[in-house]
Amino acid sequence: MSPNAEEIERLISPERLTSYMTETKSHPPSALELYYGNQEVSGAVFGDLSRLEVMLRNVAHQTLSAHAAQIGASGPRYTNSAFFPGRPGRRSVQNIADARNRATSGRRTEKEGRVIAELTFGFWRFLCVRPYLTTLWVPTLSSAFPNHPVGNAREVRSDVESRMDRLHFLRNRVAHHEPIHRRSIARDQAAIADLARWISADGHLWIHGRSSVTDVLSQRP
Question: How far, in Å, CA of 49 to CA of 41, rounded?
Fold first, then answer.
């Protein structure tokens, strides 16, 4: 038995279906098919983004922690507010405080790995902003991307930020079940590939080898 299309439209809501109806010239069955296709592409994209996020946060944490140890900073790197100056730093410090609270909910012992896992994709994206160039990127963070074709900290930061900005927006769209059927998924995939390749050739192979985006795109309405 197939569900009633009008009831499904009500459950999804006409507002959420607006872009799909526009794309299919107000043909409900086609709009629903496009909605399903959007879900499938979003799921495939989210898989690639998830693997990239794990890579990014771990190499960033490893790089920054090594730098903190080198300069003699005590305690976990994220507890040292000197790494997060100015207005962007206030956002980062608050993000870290929130992550520490989530990581220790239920009075669990704080562990660095738990805190890092609780930091959002947005946290890592905003570590790429220009005000962090001299405090983070020049002394250490650019080295987390050893395969960048130029290697100059200024250009590394700029190139990483441009891709992270694109992917941060994409991740929010996917996470909130928003339409991405009008986006250039090819450009999104290129941004993922660039970041992964700059971090590690094996990391790039890991993401690309497990990706289902191309297969799903070939089957969407």
Answer: 12
140 contacts 63 by C-beta, under 8 angstroms = yes
Domain locations along the chain: 45-213
Query: Side chain identity at 179, as an amino acid letter?
Result: P
Quick one: tokens of 127? 């570590």
CB 167 within 8 A of CB 52: yes
CA atoms of 192 and 113, how far apart (whole Å) = 24
What are the structure tokens assigned to 116, written together?
């890092």
**Residues 74 and 83 sit within 8 Å (Cβ to Cβ):** no
- 73, 64 contact by CB (below 8 A): no
Q: For residue 93, count other CB atoms closer than 10 A to its CB.
A: 16
Contact 216, 40 (CB under 8 A): yes
Dist. CA 115–CA 11, nearest whole Å: 37
Of the candidates 172, 163, 161, 160, the residue with the CA atom closest to the CA atom of residue 46: 172
> If residue 201 lies in a helix (H) or strand (E), which one and from where to where?
helix 201-210
Q: Mind listing the pLDDT tens digit for each residue in 78-122?
A: 877 777 888 888 889 899 999 999 999 867 888 888 999 999 999
Question: pTM for this structure?
Answer: 0.91
Nearest to 153 by CA among 132, 122, 174, 178: 132
